[in-house]
Amino acid sequence: MNLADLARFTDNKWDHDLLPRLKEYVKVPAQSPSFDASWAAHGFLRTVVRDAYEWAREQNIRGLTIEIVALAGMTPCLLFDVPATNGLGNERSVLFYGHLDKQPEMIGWRPNLGPWQPVIEDGKLFGRGAADDGYAIYAALTVIAALDAQGAARPRCVGIIETCEESGSPDLPAYLELLAPRLGDVQLVAGLDSGCGNYDQLWVTTSLRGLVGGTLTVEVLEEGVHSGRASGIVPSSFRIARQLLNRLDDPETGQVRDASLSAPIPAERIEQARVAGAILGEQVWREFPWTGCSHGDSAQAHAQPTTRDPVEGILNRTWRPALSVTGAGGLPSIDAAGNVLRPKTALQLSLRIPPNVDGERATRVLKRLLEASPPYNASVAFTPGTAATGWNAPATASWLQNAVDAASRAIWHRPAAWMGEGGTIPFMNMLGVKFPRAQFLITGVLGPHSNAHGPNEFLHIAYVKQLTAAVASIVAAVPGV
Description:
By secondary structure, the chain is an alpha+beta fold. Helices cover 35% and strands 21% of the residues. It has 14 helices and 18 strands. It starts with a helix and ends in a 6-residue tail after the last helix.
């Protein structure tokens, strides 16, 4: 295989086919079901699935079959299957994974940008979803096409592209149960829904935190009353909510208090964090858009991270639990806020948990901690939402270690780096259970400032081109090829 020729093929495919496709994809508000309760009626998820399906059918990939699979009442998914080449058997396979559903709009986009407005600027495609991770199916089939154009031997390649990942993949277990017998003996899982520490080398994800969440509701009155008459007698529902949150984490440090929500960090992951920390340095915390950064770089100039130690920062966001409040109810907007003691406060909670802490058990812990012995005997309820167990990669086989490093050195002229990610991909844990012998190449394009889920999300065009070529090189190195 000539890697330079392969890279030229993938670059050309991105410039003339994939980028125009993704610009059209960005325009579709295909929000995940958690954010669009009327997703079936709106039809946006069906649109992006159908568009990808039609594109795939036009590709000149010998033996490719692709179908839209839609179980009753569930979000649709795509299944593709391409037989092995050069006489290799079809029992063993590489499984590609990605998703086409998106996060909601989010406020704060720059004036010339928007979530459904594709803009290419400074080598980046801005807009919601292209990097997280609408590019996955297009890159996956380009990997296969590039190898076939080289005449390179490769294993059978199959792929599942879902449309409810941003909602915690509630439909995926049913699809995996249905489709697993058709996937073959999976040797390698190529998940294209992760991140990178920089855009200068290949990054492989070694672990993913889990995620549990839900809505905490505190009620003290049946209706709002004049604050001058009630305050001092009626306790504030917001103050009670603050007290309850203090049961979960320390308000000074953010450290989660309950030991059952933490887990020991494996020595290998600590060492990988040390290497990654040495590569990234202050970029670990500087990548974020801190308020006040435009006013200088002194210690007092901008909001501060929880730690400036890059290794501790990496471990904080990949192996340690952390609580965020991501939404609120019962709070009027400031311009509509009268002098009223409100009857209730509702907070949407998101707790990231270590990769090896069970999500369902963590949910039960949250419910117990928040509902027990409520202050002032207020009405307190925690309604569970997302519960996803994280994932920790199995021991990396020597062939994969070598192939990853060779690809990174050949394309970026730097060694590969290995690091955990703070996000959650529920499918990885499901696959680890279903295919315990599989190796995992979990990677992606979500690097510094890409801001998936937030405003000004972008796809780094040069990096995604290089990543596509790198994944092709690794697929060609699967044992037996």
